[in-house]
Design a protein that fits this description.
Strand order of the largest sheet of chain A: 5-4-6-7-3-8-9-10-11
Number of helices of chain B: 8
Structural class of chain B: alpha/beta
CATH topology of chain B: Rossmann fold
Largest sheet of chain A: 9 strands, mixed
CATH superfamily of chain B: P-loop containing nucleotide triphosphate hydrolases
Number of strands of chain A: 11
CATH class of chain A: Alpha Beta
Oligomer: heterodimer
Order of helices and strands of chain A: EHEEHEHHEHHEHHEHEEEE
Strand content of chain B: 15-25%
Number of helices of chain A: 9
Shape of chain B: globular
Radius of gyration of chain B: 15 Å
CATH architecture of chain B: 3-Layer(aba) Sandwich
Number of domains of chain A: 1
Helix content of chain B: 40-55%
């Protein structure tokens, strides 16, 4: 459906519950921080976002930083809607960032400002070449460990976000935070720069551990700020509202 | 069955009069559980070739399967969301399979909703039935606030998907609060118990 006058075009995630929370999807070309502690379902959600995009004819790119993409595909939830022909046809592409580092000659533990420029250009060129409209970097936190300083992290995310936005590409940066963190990012910079923050967490209630999702901010659209409980199923990520009667806070 | 209890045929006949997306409260007695099961699952759902999602919080899905087998009821279209086997932790606990999904605890009401939602989406059947067995068992593990909220969200969601909902309650174990909670979300009530 075309957007109404003055309304931002949406990149429907294809996750029914999340699109409802976002009043139709992520504003197109935004850069979103999808953050949370381990085991909360970030990678699964990000992957599903790309699969739905590829199915709709939008070229999608997964940049894997921490895990070899072959291994990632082996461990993927057996989605009923996932068709491996999306990979064969090039609609869905997986790239391992460590391979890219190697090709760009980035062997040192810390990247220089020039290397950051080079890395941003490398990702942008790849996205442009592939005609990418949806991109995931999993995880941005691992990239940040090679940047070390807040200035470099800020510079990298700002430049990357701008380059991809210019390509009309909607980007999800997967962030990792410790389970007890009160911040939305490990370095405190990512959350300030991103256009949106989706927080995934494990919430304990009377001894039960629930996986939750909450949209903290999303520039360019109204959105629900309520907390939802999610399940990772072969039909994809399913969401229901957190029952308030049992909330601990 | 005592003469004043409703028969399986009568229960099915009442259910067959309900339009799609109806939510029905079915109050039974502990003595006529088998009539209720036969009426709802066999004479109503199986006869209409509906997929049934049976949420069990009272006895394990394995035990219900044995009952259905004894009653010679076809279980090929019945899918269980079993909230009780996991916490029993014993040898009688049900195994997760294509027809059985386990929820860790009856206190995880959101997960219960998610499993129902998953099975609804997976079902190819035109008409679907969701049975909650029983509200009294869920009330043992949850307070009325959260249970009421759960029923409201679950039933509203099922209505939007045009699914039938049948909420079982046991008259001997029911309270005014539980009855009110159920009647608030249901369109119709069937009394199949001793006082029915």
């Amino acid at each position: 459906m075309p957007p109404k006058t003055g309304e931002r075009d949406r990149c429907a995630t294809g996750l029914e519950g999340l699109d409802t929370i976002l009043y139709g999807g992520i504003p197109r070309s935004n850069t979103i921080l999808l953050t949370g502690s381990c085991g909360t379902g970030k990678t699964s959600l990000a992957l599903e976002f790309l699969i739905h995009g590829a199915q709709r004819g939008e070229n999608s790119l997964f940049v894997s930083v921490t895990e070899n993409s072959e291994k990632l595909l082996t461990n993927i939830i057996p989605y009923k809607f996932f068709d491996r022909s999306l990979i064969k046809s090039g609609r869905l592409v997986f790239v391992d960032l460590p391979v890219m580092y190697e090709r760009l000659g980035m062997t040192k533990a810390e990247l220089s400002m020039e290397e950051i420029e080079l890395l941003v250009a490398g990702i942008r060129d790849l996205a442009e070449e592939l005609g990418t409209k949806r991109l995931v970097i999993d995880s941005i936190t691992s990239v940040c460990y090679k940047l070390k300083t807040s200035e470099k992290i800020r510079d990298f995310i700002l430049k990357l976000g701008k380059s991809l936005s210019d390509l009309n590409c909607t980007t999800i940066l997967v962030g990792e935070v410790p389970a007890d963190s009160t911040s939305y990012s490990s370095f405190g910079v990512e959350e300030a720069i991103a256009d949106g923050i989706i927080l995934m967490a494990n919430m304990e209630r009377r001894g039960d551990l629930l996986r939750t999702l909450q949209v903290i901010k999303m520039r360019g659209t109204m959105h629900s700020r309520a907390k939802y409980v999610l399940d990772l199923t072969p039909m994809g990520v399913l969401l229901v509202p957190l029952l308030k009667g049992g909330s601990t806070v | 069955m005592s003469p004043d209890q409703m028969s399986a045929q009568k229960i099915a006949a009442e259910l067959l009069e309900m339009p799609p997306a109806s939510a029905i409260s079915l109050q039974m007695s502990v003595d006529n559980y088998l009539d209720v099961i036969r009426g709802v699952l066999d004479l109503f759902a199986n006869k209409r070739e509906m997929d049934t999602i049976y949420v069990t919080a009272t006895i394990s899905s394995d035990a219900i399967k044995r009952v259905l087998e004894a009653l010679d009821i076809d279980t090929s279209r019945i899918y269980f969301v079993d909230c009780i086997s996991h916490i029993m932790m014993g040898g009688t606990a049900a195994q997760q399979d294509d027809h059985t999904t386990l929820v860790e605890s009856p206190t995880m009401l959101e997960n219960l909703m998610l499993k129902v939602e998953y099975l609804i989406r997976r079902s190819q059947s035109k008409d679907k039935l969701v049975v909650i067995d029983s509200i009294n068992s869920l009330a043992i593990h949850n307070n009325n606030w959260i249970l009421s909220e759960f029923l409201h969200i679950l039933v509203s969601g099922l209505r939007s998907r045009e699914a039938f909902t049948v909420i079982l309650s046991v008259e001997e174990h029911s309270t005014a609060d539980i009855n009110n909670m159920v009647s608030l979300v249901c369109d119709h009530g069937i009394r199949a118990g001793k006082e029915g």
